[in-house]
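S1.2 Input.
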Amino acid sequence: MVREALTGFALSFNAYDRVGEIQDVLEIANDAAAVYGVAGTLPDSLDAIRTILLFEQRRYLQIDRPPVGRELEYVEALVREIRRLSGGTLPGPADPYP
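S1.3 Output.
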């Protein structure tokens, strides 16, 4: 249930329409993951964090398994940061699925 809810939430932000090319989304997500791996910090932009979460959702869909261990910790950190930056409320409606 949690996995499905998180997937639905990640897909509610269509970063491909908002950011542009898939390569731009890939760069944002990979750069953030590298910084998080070294410094444990995330971008301070709600749109950037939601872009990263969408990318991570797509990544695990492609490899056909959920995140585990440090991967899961990273996804959970993204969700916590979204809560912090948004104050727990996001404007709606959700974007169409990418």
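S1.4 Remarks. The chain has a mean pLDDT of 91.
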